[in-house]
Fold:
Amino acid sequence: MLSPGKRKGLKAVSNARGVIAALAIDQRSALRSLFAKAMGVEPEAVPRPALEQFKEAVSRVLTPHASAILLDPEYGLSAARQRANNAGLLLAYEQTGYDRAVPGRLPHLLNGYSVERLVAEGADCIKILLYYSPFSHPSINNQKHAWVQRIGAECASSDVPFFLELVGYDDAIEEKGIEFARIKPEVTAVSMEEFSKPEYAVDVIKVGVPVNMAFVEGSRSNPASAVYNRKEAIAHFVRAAASARKPFIYLSEGVSNETFNEALELAAEAGANFSGVLCGRATWKDGVPIFAQKGVRALEEWLSNQGTQNIQQLNARLGRATPWFEFYGSPSAGAV
Structure:
């Protein structure tokens, strides 16, 4: 059973069907890198107002077509205030990136914030990102397990939903390459199973699809070398979905809108009971150079046309999604 506050928060970020059709723009270092490339400067030289204005425009133009928006409290609070009335708010609680000098990609929370303070800023739900691999040394994963448990307890104390974003990795392998594509299904399924356990108090798992579409035979991503045929890829979707005991939603992992749409088609074909999406760069990434070169009005025009088409294409793929409340054995959000 969900508590009243958690039920209220999940209803706020989902559509009338109980499906999460959310937009993510909580990127910080990744967004700086996109801006740096577009502006021809180092990431540190990207001015703060540019990041804030970009997030504001994305929020203003695209949230009328989304059930919620995910933002960060560092650069995104002004954007949160400009979202459409229909859109709920998720706020990120983790620091961006990780210390490359320390093994394990250990996570850290934002300084100066707590779950209670994020709720005071208007958050309907709290999200953290965790780099995780079941193949990491137990001493590393023990730290991560305890960290997630503490955040789960903090969210429970504030009676607010806890979204856990899992990003699979291997310190010895490039995540976009063929070697990681071979182990990604196992990393995804085992991670989803682990954090479905009740001791973590996770309410929704946010995760990438269990295959790399660039290595699915016959995919529109034109793989140079296939790792899985279509039947095998579908089996990986089925296995990962079966590993989850909590509602789960897919993230785009920085791929193109076309590739993410194809992944959702495959998920639907597999009958995966995902409860929606929290999609970021696949929706708005191509607007960064437009903003950098031509300014906010040109960006708004692009968002009103191509950006809106991108998000509507994703929304059209959610007809087969499973309402989050069904994971709690309920016929409706109000009955959970």
